[in-house]
Amino acid sequence: MSAPRDPRGGLFGALTAACGADWRAYVGHPFVRGLADGSLPERCFRHYLAQDYLFLLHYSRAWSLAVVKSDRLDDLRQSAALVDLLLNHEIALHVDFCGGWGLDETALAATPEAPANRLYTRYVMDRGLAGDLLDLLVALAPCGLGYAEIGRRLLADPATKREGNPYLPWIELYGGAEFQEGAAAMAAQLDRVAGRRGLTPPWDGSARWPSISDTFATAVRLEVGFWDMGLAPPA
Amino acid sequence: MSAPRDPRGGLFGALTAACGADWRAYVGHPFVRGLADGSLPERCFRHYLAQDYLFLLHYSRAWSLAVVKSDRLDDLRQSAALVDLLLNHEIALHVDFCGGWGLDETALAATPEAPANRLYTRYVMDRGLAGDLLDLLVALAPCGLGYAEIGRRLLADPATKREGNPYLPWIELYGGAEFQEGAAAMAAQLDRVAGRRGLTPPWDGSARWPSISDTFATAVRLEVGFWDMGLAPPA
Amino acid sequence: MSAPRDPRGGLFGALTAACGADWRAYVGHPFVRGLADGSLPERCFRHYLAQDYLFLLHYSRAWSLAVVKSDRLDDLRQSAALVDLLLNHEIALHVDFCGGWGLDETALAATPEAPANRLYTRYVMDRGLAGDLLDLLVALAPCGLGYAEIGRRLLADPATKREGNPYLPWIELYGGAEFQEGAAAMAAQLDRVAGRRGLTPPWDGSARWPSISDTFATAVRLEVGFWDMGLAPPA
Amino acid sequence: MSAPRDPRGGLFGALTAACGADWRAYVGHPFVRGLADGSLPERCFRHYLAQDYLFLLHYSRAWSLAVVKSDRLDDLRQSAALVDLLLNHEIALHVDFCGGWGLDETALAATPEAPANRLYTRYVMDRGLAGDLLDLLVALAPCGLGYAEIGRRLLADPATKREGNPYLPWIELYGGAEFQEGAAAMAAQLDRVAGRRGLTPPWDGSARWPSISDTFATAVRLEVGFWDMGLAPPA
Q: Is any Cβ of chain C less than 8 angstroms from the Cβ of A76?
């Protein structure tokens, strides 16, 4: 199988280009650099993992809202499969992974949701309630597509520490073929839905562009806030 | 004050033109002709009035969903004022009006919602949940703008029976300046929101047109079903 | 494996008992009797199958709304698995099944949604938007649990025609172990959610009972309307 | 007219009692004390005012969602009147008030929404989408009822600085009869809806209590975050 196409063409490429500084602050965040060179303090990573568990539940709800808002069989199917994958497979993997870091599921479920965590998912839900499927997918895009970009970059970067880096499994997960293919499918869905919902190239000439690019940039900044949160574990 | 502009230019005009036969079936329905010449059986009108009371409650909920889905102060304000007008003024007028036909509010509230009534408002709510503000406004348009067209036509038509027509107050309400101005404001909002949400002339060249025109035509057929229901009161 | 427990205990049992005449009109509908003795005209069944294809899409959206409205991992998982099953497996089976009756997927997707079909799913969606997870599950219950009861009864009834009955595969599907187990899981979820959402036995002493039992009875009547629709195929 | 009853009886009283420390942190926040003695830095108040303008828009959307989720005429009417009051009257007053502090509406509308501001309203919206009318009203309660308590306390407290306190108009607004009556109506609605939705005294014996009291306590902490934000204006 050939390598998945870089999803940064199409609408996703235009959106990241339009919020360049925010995007770079997200994908090149100190938290990410700490994963790459293994210098991230363990308690930061554990804090992040526990929040990410809670995040996955609401992220799954948001993708379910995408099913609610779909009217084509391909969109219904793609989002439904993702929701099932997240809730009935990924969360179990996440729990296993957390177990390796000394966090059991009871501890995960009892973790108070941090404001920066809650803010991102609830913002996404509200974009979905207020807008259409495109608004929702654009608010969701920084997460799936951003993690794919981070994973791909770190995995391709010879400077990434391999030996003795406790975060290598994280990098391999998001940089791996399965996640990359999922991200490519998400980017393709974004373009497909944009085309049907009146957002077409040249993107920034479209009436929907100001609102769509604002949603994306806002969501990117909320992802930056999520990394910031990771660096500030409770005492 | 000058007469309000016919709202059938702009998007609304394009939508009615695109579903011409359905639109004519709606605004020229036998129920409407029975109002015009006074021949509508009284029990049909009473059945219609009782269902219309229930309709107003859900129609108000749908316009509240429009507030939920608005992001501009002008849209927020316009829909909020309409919801308040409907619930805190129009319903009281409707109840008074029904009183004149021998229906009190307890009887109105106890009326079972007819399928054709329920179908229209729930379809509208779902278009709002699934789509964006434009999808919702387009699903709502046949009601407000259609009643305005019916009222305006009947009032302007010399063949409309005036003397001794018990339905003249109904015609005067929907043909009157206040309702016409409200409808003109609705049509203007439709054009304004369409422009921001990526639906621009030439309408039928827009990627959103197939879905938008389908929503409108469907809602028009559900309005036809509402008139049909009026002609078939329970025994 | 032991046979699944009859799901008519618990809340579901109370709800069916409370709307006995409507429930009997649903599960003993002439359409159902025509399936049992094989006398249902083929064009009625084909009409039903085409509408059921469209139904499945919106039914899946409604179960996705249940995911959106869930806050426990067990509920999130159960509804997400069902949505994925419906969209990524059941619809394909349904399309295969329809193929055996001469209906291909293009024809299915192009079928206009009949009013009685649209009415049920949009009513369910609105109960979900207006209410909580329990209101939504109760509106959904007549479908899954009713089909399970119909299938189980017909399969257990010696009077059901087996040989030469073209509808036997339909009966075997809904009466079969897999569907019965799914229905038992649904009934168990209903009781579990009711308990958390303030509806507890004695059911009819609960403040939520009037609204919940009205939702259920309304949905049952809309299912009756769905069967009625099946008996009235377009000319 | 007699003074409005303290709304802290009923469900609201139980909710505030159950999260006592959080509630005290909210109504006795340093920001509030700075309003009371006039010591709050002007740039903090201006920052707060600009954020509060944006807050009002989303708060109005949340109350519109309450209309969407209502099924009784009294609830529909009360929430609709509040939304209209907020959008078509209060915001204009707020803009006037801000004008006196040197902030014009263009500046207000161009203010970036602070995370703590966005977090509260989007959390409320999501409680409304996920839950029922009661979940939504409980998430909304800390705002209206908390401001009423703060205003009433400060106005009644002889230690509150009157002469030369630039924040006295703010205190008089929220401590004044009109706002107090609105708050009393909100508290009454909360009890009324709780009764219908299966949450009855003794509150903490109800199956819904853990979730309801968690929603309230969370919203109170988000209000504390809103005050914290006020004390940390951008440089």
A: yes
pTM: 0.97
Question: Are B211 and A196 within 8 A, CB to CB?
Answer: yes
Q: Counting runs of H as helices and runs of E as strands, what totals does chain A give?
A: 12, 0
Q: Per the CB < 8 Å rule, is D126 touching A126?
A: yes
User: What's the mean pLDDT when you consider all of chain B?
Assistant: 95
Contact at 8 Å (CB) between D62 and D117?
no
For the residues of B35-95, what is the DSSP string, one character each?
Answer: HHSS-S-HHHHHHHHHHHHHHHHHHHHHHHHHHHT--SHHHHHHHHHHHHHIIIIIHHHHH
Strand, helix or coil for residue D101: coil
pLDDT in tens, C197-214: 999 899 999 999 999 999
For residue C142, cis peptide bond before it (omega within 30 degrees of 0): no
Report how far residue B171's alpha carbon sits from residue C152's, in angstroms, rounded to the nearest whole number: 55
The CATH label, of 3.20.20.140, 3.40.190.10, 1.20.910.10, 3.50.50.60, for the domain at D21-230 is 1.20.910.10
pLDDT tens, C143-160? 999 999 999 999 999 999
Q: Is D143 a catalytic site residue?
A: yes
CA A87 from centre of chain: 15
Cβ–Cβ contact C111 with D under 8 A: no
Q: What's the one-letter identity of residue C114?
A: A
Q: Is D119's Cβ below 8 Å from some Cβ in A?
A: yes
Distance CA B40, CA D160 (A): 68
Among all residues of chain C, which has the CA nearest to that of D70?
Answer: C130
Question: What's the token pair of residue A215?
Answer: 């949603």
Q: Give how far C183 is from chain D: nearest CA, Å.
A: 24
Catalogue the active-site residues of A. Answer: 143, 223
Quote the DSSP letter at residue B4.
P
Q: Do residues D136 and D211 make contact, with C-beta atoms less than 8 angstroms apart? A: no
- Of the candidates D207, C64, B51, which has an alpha carbon nearest to the alpha carbon of residue A84? C64
Q: Does A111 touch chain D (CB under 8 A)?
A: no
Amino acid at A206: S
pLDDT tens, A68-87?
A: 999 999 999 999 999 999 99
Contact A218, A123 (CB under 8 A): yes
C69 touching D (Cβ < 8 Å): yes
Q: In this predicted model, what pLDDT tens digit does every residue of C7-34 receive, in sequence order?
A: 667 999 999 999 999 999 999 999 999 9
Give dist(CA A226, CA A223) in Å, integer. Answer: 5
Contact A197 B206 (CB under 8 A): no
Distances from the Cα of D10 to the Cα of A202, D77, D191, D193, angstroms = 57, 22, 6, 12
| CA–CA separation, C171 and C153 (whole Å) | 9
Given pLDDT bands bounded at 50, 70 and 90, which one contains residue B1? very low
Say whether A118 and D119 touch across the interface (CB within 8 A).
yes
Contacts of D207 in chain C (CB under 8 A): 195-198, 200
ipTM score above 0.90: yes
Contact B227, B38 (CB under 8 A): no
Which among A61, A119, A125 is the nearest to D118, CB-wise?
A119
Q: Give the residue from chain D lying closest to A125, CA to CA.
A: D126
Give the minimum alpha-carbon distance from A64 to chain D in angstroms, rounded to a whole number: 12
Q: Which of C53, C64, C133 is the mutation pick for testing A, counting most A CBs within 10 A?
A: C64
- Chain D partners within 8 Å of A225 (Cβ): 115
Distance of CA A13 to the CA centre of its chain: 15
Are the beta carbons of B80 and D61 separated by less than 8 Å? no
Size of interface A-D (CB pairs under 8 A): 32
For residue range C37-72, what is the model confidence (pLDDT) as tens digits? 999 999 999 999 999 999 999 999 999 999 999 999
Q: Which of A119, A129, A130 sits opposite D119 (nearest CB)?
A: A119
For the record, the structure tokens of D110 come out as 């161009």
Q: Examine the pLDDT at B234 and tell me if it is beyond 50.
A: yes
